[in-house]
Specification:
Helix content is about 45%, strand content about 10%. The longest helix is centred in the C-terminal third of the chain and has 21 residues. About 0% of the residues have low confidence. Helix 14 runs parallel beside helix 21 and helix 18 packs across helix 19. Strand 15 and strand 16 form a beta hairpin. It folds into 4 domains: about 200 residues, Rossmann fold; about 200 residues, Rossmann fold, CATH 3.40.50; about 100 residues, Winged helix-like DNA-binding domain superfamily/Winged helix DNA-binding domain (Arc Repressor Mutant, subunit A), CATH 1.10.10; about 70 residues, HRDC domain (DNA polymerase, domain 1, Orthogonal Bundle). The chain is of the alpha/beta class. The protein is built from 27 helices and 17 strands.
């Protein structure tokens, strides 16, 4: 029988001590990727900047050093985290694993906060999670100074470090004050972690957090278990979303991102009316409603959260099988961060997005109309252009996505473009017709939007075309051979390529400098073919849907054991007030059902079963398995 948790002694060398913590506390036999090097760097007192994809195991990179330094009498590690839900679940998971941890945030009563502060000041806590706003208050800084004077401040971990950068996709001004940590406690090691940061954002993180002497660890950004799918908005985007969910993810957990609060609520209502278990989440909802919806998402199976970007950071739910976007994100970092919330358990998942002309126009307008300086706007335009290039790409999505983060790769064979290479066509003449029509408007001192432009190209008689006499233009009806959907696709791609801009409140169209070469016929324009509208029903796309459930592959009896273990886990989770995955992840339960351990020693060999959990749940698990 495995003994209770035995942590390493202060005399053990760091490498063997780290592996002992990994095995005894977390139930894993080996570190992944760069985890071992990161743990050794921080545990030894060095600083680190860690870029690791969602689901790559970032939390172990600071939790293991915190435990190691605590066993050496170096006190409490302070973790800067922006989200209450993340703090609660991380602390719950650590306590389940036998590590004394706590959090301080606005959800607690004064009495609870005082009790935790006493625990912190005594040095008994191993990890304390706190929001950046609390960390920089005079009271908390004074408490940290007292701990430091007594040698009981072991390290700082700054999670979601991209929030410190103005170039990042989720800048938070309160993060700017975190430079105080190095200024006041220069000998206390720090580790800053994020899942997404391009070169500009990385440089900003290093400068603002004063991490110039830190070791930088950059893991592969590849999430091979995620299939990327990007489709053109075609008719009703909600109907497209519904087909995607019905075809491939019925009854599974997912996140649907929308740009506006109104669209969130309308989409959630639409999915509910279609019989799907969906909830809205945005910053305009009452705080109690948001908390209740988030708790349900974390604790229930198969729930769909329809949300703005206010939802998601720090959500550890491992079995999210899809992330869908009904609107174009601002940049690739945001897209990568949001899609990375799918498939954290390593099982197959999908990232689906639908976008159209209005998305391109709206994102460009938001940049142009923002009060930011021109240098910042130019940077944001470049980031949007990179995302548009990804959306319009005809080659491997994954290759382009990874190239943005400076990582070379081979075609994945698993994204939509690899599975169904899109058709392209020589759109040079169509582009010249469209640009020429805009030019004719300009000659008359007129500006119009997409709808009117397409009416003129197709020779469609309307009150507006008659009012302005546009049936007399040389470009009247020259594009009658293309459908409205096809012309919208041409215009969208010309805007994405920078030949046309949509300006002002009414998104009127203007030619850009690069349009001149196209009008003269000096460059070839090859575009994706527009997708045809599909009726409600089964979609057709190549590549069988990946099997998502780790339990698949079990025989009939194994599946029965797996379901019995899930039912048992659900009861334990309710009793402890925690999400089920904090007790054991599905992958661990599936392995138990597959291996059928005969005793506690064999059960302790399964990945994810640490000593504390073995002691707490081992006999019950064997009972459920009929051993």
């Amino acid at each position: 029988m495995n003994p209770p948790v035995h942590l390493p002694s202060p005399t053990d060398d760091l490498q063997s001590a780290a592996h002992q913590v990994l095995s005894a506390v977390f139930g894993y036999t080996a570190f992944r990727g760069q985890q071992a090097d990161i743990v050794e760097q921080v545990a030894a007192g060095g600083d680190a900047l860690v870029l690791m994809p969602t689901g790559g195991g970032k939390s172990l990179c600071y939790q293991v050093p915190a435990i190691l330094r605590h066993t050496r009498g170096q006190g409490v590690a302070v973790v800067v985290s922006p989200l209450i839900a993340l703090m609660h679940d991380q602390v719950g998971a650590l306590e389940e694993a036998g590590v004394h941890a706590a959090f301080l945030n606005s959800s607690q009563t004064g009495e609870e906060a005082t009790r935790i502060e006493r625990e912190m000041m005594s040095g008994r806590l191993t990890l304390l999670y706190a929001a950046p706003e609390r960390l920089t208050t005079p009271r908390f800084l004074a408490q940290l100074a007292s701990l430091h004077e007594r040698g009981l401040l072991s390290m700082f971990a700054i999670d979601e470090a991209h929030c410190v950068s103005q170039w990042g996709h989720d800048f938070r001004s309160e993060y700017l004050q975190l430079s105080l940590l190095h200024e006041r406690f220069p000998d206390v090691p720090r580790i800053a972690l994020t899942a997404t940061a391009d070169d500009l954002t990385r440089a900003d993180i290093i400068e603002r957090l004063q991490l110039q002497d830190a070791r930088v660890f950059i893991s592969s950004f590849d999430r091979p278990n995620i299939r990327y799918l990007i489709v053109e908005k075609n008719g009703s985007p909600r109907e497209q979303l519904l087909r995607f969910i019905r075809d491939d993810h019925e009854g599974e957990a997912g996140v649907v991102y929308c740009q506006s609060r109104k669209k969130v609520e309308e989409t959630a209502e639409f999915l509910q009316a279609e019989g799907l278990n969906a909830l809205p989440y945005h910053a305009g909802l009452d705080a109690d409603v948001r908390r209740r919806h988030q708790d349900r998402f974390l604790r229930e199976d198969g729930l769909i959260m329809v949300a703005t970007i206010a939802f998601g950071m720090g959500i550890d739910k491992p079995d999210v099988r899809f992330v869908a976007h009904l609107d174009l994100p601002k940049n690739i970092e945001a897209y990568y961060q949001e899609t990375g919330r799918a498939g954290r358990d390593g099982a197959p998942a999908e990232a689906w997005m639908t976008y159209g002309l209005a998305d391109v126009v709206n994102q460009r307008r938001m940049i142009d109309e923002s009060p930011a300086g021109e240098t910042f706007k130019q940077g944001q335009r470049g980031k949007l252009d990179a995302l548009l290039a990804l959306a319009e790409a005809t080659d491997c999505r994954r290759v382009r996505l990874l190239a943005y983060f400076g990582e070379a790769s081979q075609p994945c064979g698993n994204c939509d473009n690899c599975l169904n290479p899109p058709a392209t066509w020589d759109a040079t003449e169509a582009a010249r017709k469209l640009l020429s029509c805009i030019y004719r408007f300009h000659q008359r001192g007129e500006r119009f939007g997409a709808g009117h432009l397409i009416d003129v190209l197709r020779g469609k008689v309307t009150d507006k075309t008659k009012q302005y006499g546009h049936d007399s233009l040389s470009t009247w009806g020259v594009g009658a051979d293309l459908s409205e959907q096809q012309w919208r696709a041409v215009l969208r791609q010309l805007i994405a390529l920078g030949h046309v801009a949509a300006e002002g409140e009414f998104s009127t169209l203007a030619l850009q400098d690069s349009a001149r070469a196209v009008l003269k016929g000096e460059v070839e324009v090859r575009l994706r073919e527009a997708e045809e509208k599909k009726p409600r029903g089964k979609t057709t796309r190549g590549g069988a849907r990946p099997k998502a459930d780790p339990a698949l592959g079990l025989d009939a009896e194994g599946l029965e054991r797996f379901e019995a273990l899930k039912a048992w886990r659900s009861e334990v989770a309710k009793e402890h007030g925690l999400p089920a995955y904090v007790i054991f992840q599905n992958t661990t339960l599936a392995e138990m059902a597959r291996v059928m351990p005969g005793d506690l020693d064999e059960l302790g060999e399964i990945s994810g079963v640490g000593a504390k959990k073995l002691e707490a749940y081992g006999r019950e698990i064997l009972r459920v398995l009929g051993r």
